[in-house]
């Protein structure tokens, strides 16, 4: 299958180049050119997640050098469970946070790392590949963990100063070896701008081999379809009805993956996006005018995005505003409502949820009785233990640390501080 840029029809590449380039040469994002409906009967019941992933993703890799490695890549990436937990009648939580850094971004990051490390070895270059990643909190940790000690690959992680939680910062800076962490005087949008500018900079590209690992990377998006595809299919086989999703959204990678899985024919009903007070997407859907904004700091900080990159892909998928509004909806949630939802989940189900997941619960709680009669899955994007300073005071008790997280918290932090000026960043990269 070929991949096309969101900006021009004549930029098409195979998946291997799409993965290595990250961003298309014209500054657009790569999209698959076809959405062939899959034959659902070919997926067996109770398949291992890695095996299911391999079957789903095979058509996207038909011309890839990685074709024969895809099964191994999927096993490596999907090495932890993704349960659909039943909360009450008609309501589920899709727990995406059981990976090494306790957030859903482990899925995409591990898949990307497994692909890139192999492509890099196959290409046999003399210069190392440098991966740039801007993070509002969770991406950087997941990418650093996924690439740590992979040979021939270096990673530069950029995070906004003072805008990630202490435990997130620990996950961004505890690696060393081939991982370099930069604390940027600015916002997440500044970090993202530095990465995008660097990728298009000709000086840099003649001196070093650069790529990105942001959710703009197609190799992060494709594997995120897997959990929507598998959970909706197994739910459909048991309950004869589609599963509807509420998805905590920031840069819209996770929600794009859900929409794409539905286009492929999986039994997914409504897709509702929950954002925090960075409300550009709900505003865009209601007014038809997209107006990027500087990002605002909220309790759901991994979703503090004022100019979500993947909107470009969603608009390419559904170019007309009327159609777009039929295919998805979006609601924004205040910090006060996030706090309330965290308390409600704890009271009703003794469930401890993170501030991001709380946006989904709040949006669900406002639905009509008729809507709630259908089956919904709240997408649980991170472990609450990463955001203990927000969550513990609300529930009045300490949160148990998952094993993988307590291991990371024991390591030493190593990072450098930088301004948000591109010239500074460029100089550091070249040095
Ligand atoms: C990144 C992130 C999100 C937002 O996902 P997008 O794909 O950027 O929309 C939500 N919750 C958590 C915990 C995250 O880390």
Small-molecule binders: pyridoxal-5'-phosphate
Instruction: Please report the total strand number as a whole number.
Output: 14
Low-confidence stretches: none
Strand content: 15-25%
**What is the helix fraction of residues, given as a range?**
40-55%
* Sheet of most strands: 6 strands, mixed
Sum up the overall morphology in one term.
globular
Q: Class by helix and strand content?
A: alpha/beta
Radius of gyration: 20 Å
Number of helices: 19
Major beta sheet, strand line-up: 4-5-13-10-11-12
Mean pLDDT reading: 94
- Distance from N terminus to C terminus (CA atoms, Å) equals 38 Å
Descriptive notes:
Helix 2 (49-57) crosses helix 3, helix 4 crosses helix 9 (218-239) and helix 14 (335-349) crosses helix 15 (355-365). 44% of the residues lie in helices and 16% in strands. The protein has helices at 15-21, 49-57, 70-77, 105-123, 138-147, 166-173, 188-200, 202-207, 218-239, 253-263, 280-287, 311-317, 321-327, 335-349, 355-365, 369-372, 388-395, 403-409, 422-430; strands at 2-5, 12-14, 30-32, 84-88, 91-95, 129-134, 153-160, 179-184, 209-212, 243-248, 268-275, 329-332, 376-380, 416-418. The strands form 3 sheets. Strands 4-5-13-10-11-12 form a 6-stranded mixed β-sheet. The protein has a 5-stranded parallel β-sheet with strand order 9-6-7-8-14. Strands 2-1-3 form a 3-stranded antiparallel β-sheet. The protein contains 19 helices and 14 strands. A hairpin with a 2-residue loop joins strand 4 (84-88) and strand 5 (91-95). With 431 residues, it is α/β, with parallel strands linked by helices. Pyridoxal-5'-phosphate is lined by residues 103, 105, 138, 215, 248-255, 302-303, 356, 381-382.
């Amino acid at each position: 299958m070929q991949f096309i840029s969101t900006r021009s029809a004549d930029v098409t590449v195979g998946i291997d180049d799409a993965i290595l380039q990250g961003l298309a040469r014209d500054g657009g994002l790569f999209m698959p050119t076809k959405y062939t409906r899959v034959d659902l009967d070919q997926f067996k019941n109770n398949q291992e997640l890695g095996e299911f992933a391999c079957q789903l993703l095979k058509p996207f890799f038909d011309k890839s050098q990685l074709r024969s490695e895809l099964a191994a890549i999927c096993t490596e990436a999907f090495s932890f469970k993704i349960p659909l937990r039943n909360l009450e009648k008609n309501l589920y939580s899709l727990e995406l946070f059981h990976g090494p850094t306790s957030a859903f971004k482990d899925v995409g990051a591990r898949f990307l790392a497994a692909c890139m490390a192999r492509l890099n070895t196959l290409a046999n270059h003399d210069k190392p590949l440098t991966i740039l990643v801007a993070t509002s909190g969770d991406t950087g940790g997941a990418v650093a963990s996924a690439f740590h000690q992979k040979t021939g690959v270096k990673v530069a992680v950029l995070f906004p100063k003072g805008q990630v939680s202490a435990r997130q910062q620990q996950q961004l800076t505890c690696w060393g070896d081939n991982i370099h962490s930069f604390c940027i005087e600015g916002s997440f949008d500044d970090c993202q701008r530095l990465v995008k500018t660097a990728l298009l900079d000709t000086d840099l590209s003649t001196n070093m081999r650069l790529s990105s690992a942001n959710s703009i990377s197609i190799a992060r998006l494709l594997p995120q379809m897997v959990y929507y595809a598998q959970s909706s299919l197994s739910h459909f086989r048991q309950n004869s009805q589609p599963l509807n999703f509420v998805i905590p959204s920031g840069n819209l990678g996770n929600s794009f993956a859900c929409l794409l899985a539905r286009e492929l024919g999986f039994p997914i009903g409504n897709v509702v996006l929950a954002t925090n007070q960075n409300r550009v997407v709900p505003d865009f859907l209601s007014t038809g005018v997209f107006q990027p904004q500087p990002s605002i700091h909220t309790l759901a900080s991994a979703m503090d995005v004022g100019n979500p990159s993947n909107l470009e892909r969603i608009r390419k998928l559904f170019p007309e505003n009327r159609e777009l509004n039929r295919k998805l909806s979006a609601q924004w949630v205040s910090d006060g409502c996030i706090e309330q939802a965290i308390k409600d989940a704890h009271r009703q189900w003794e469930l401890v949820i993170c501030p991001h997941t709380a946006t989904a619960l709040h949006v669900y709680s406002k639905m009509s009785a008729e809507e709630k009669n259908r089956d919904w899955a709240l997408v649980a994007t991170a472990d609450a233990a990463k955001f203990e300073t927000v969550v513990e005071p609300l529930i009045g008790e300490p949160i148990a640390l998952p094993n993988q997280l307590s291991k990371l918290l024991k390591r030493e932090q190593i990072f450098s501080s930088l301004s948000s000026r591109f010239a500074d960043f460029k100089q550091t990269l070249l040095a």
